[in-house]
Amino acid sequence: MPPLSYASAERFLLSREFFGMKLGLENISEFLESIGSPQFGFLTIHIAGTNGKGSTASMLASILQAQGYKTGLYTSPHLVSLRERVRIDDTDIPKTAVTAYVRRHRRELIRRKLSFFEVMTAMAFEHFSRSGVEVAVIETGLGGRLDATNVMRPLLTIVTDISRDHMEILGGTLRRIAIEKAGIIKSGVPHLIGLLPDEARKVMVDGCRKIDAPLHRLSRREYAAYPSENRVDFRDNLWGVRGVRPGLLGPHQLKNAALVFKAVGLLRTQGLPISRKAALEGMADVRWPGRFQVLRVPNQPTLVFDVGHNAGGVAAFAETFRTCFPGQRAHILTGFVKKKEHQKMFDQLAGIAAEYVIVPLATRRSVDTQELIRTIRWRGVPVHRHGTILTGWRRLTESCGPDDIICVIGSHYLVGEFFQKIGT
Fold first, then answer.
1. Is the overall model pTM greater than 0.90, yes or no?
2. Who's near 362: CB < 8 A, 6+ residues apart?
3. How far apart are CA 205 and CA 9, in angstroms?
């Protein structure tokens, strides 16, 4: 039999999407046990939330790395390559490791009919364990209670934010969504929550009380944010930090940064040494592509990329745009998947949009662009429909000048396809 190529291994992994989304832990738990339970081979922090969990995870991983820990980071979805989901110290999982994983377990993965996310989660755990990772930051894929990542015994669990998204799966109310996110709470393990709506916060309080998990909450009194300067001050009972400028832009990232500083304090009380110096350096050095990522090239329009793909994410994007580019408007190239609150998203964008260029996504989940144009109230903003991201981009580059701002904002599929076909 010829050796397995990376391309073949990648095709196999992507083919697991045929099995759709599975919510439940029995299948992945049994598979992980059969390969030695690698998820228990290192320390973990588990993060859930509607928005902000990826940014929070990347900030925390950057701080742990600055402290000198060999640090794993597991996030989803990816932009260009599935290897982006599994990282150690800012390095994607090597192609050789992906290929070896598929070679070792392909027959068993097929037999058990593991989904794409289950397969990727197990690969992350095994790669971290085999590579000698000391601590890993693990982001849930969807929800928490039945998410494939919920098979660990973490040092700390975090819920960043709760708003309405994936309602067809998680439930149509904030309470139902919060119950799913609260499923990551573990008895005796500190649980940290961000600034949640009252209904969701009550679910977290009740969830911690029922299984005796210490609850910690981020309070607005603990930090002061200065969006125009992109800096935050934070105080706790261990040490305080002032004038910190995160490597990520936006008022919402200042809130995420405050949550991370509080998490660092909790990890220290859990016996994980982290210095003030490492916290400051890691926060400043964090990079997270596609999250209000600004690209400036002389004599060309300014480009901004953002994967705001639900109403909360788009609201944060619009607020950040107004902070970074006061009084200006954006030429917006956008595309979304189905089953989102599209009207709410375009209502948020209307205040900053000079025009929209709507394109379909390279996935069967793409919303029908013709239907979108027919059903959305555009509030006087010109809208144009193009058949591909390339033709939409061509329109904008031909009509925009050096003083203009082009924003590529929407689904991960949109930003990922742009990076792949057009570049940055």
1. yes
2. 413, 417
3. 44
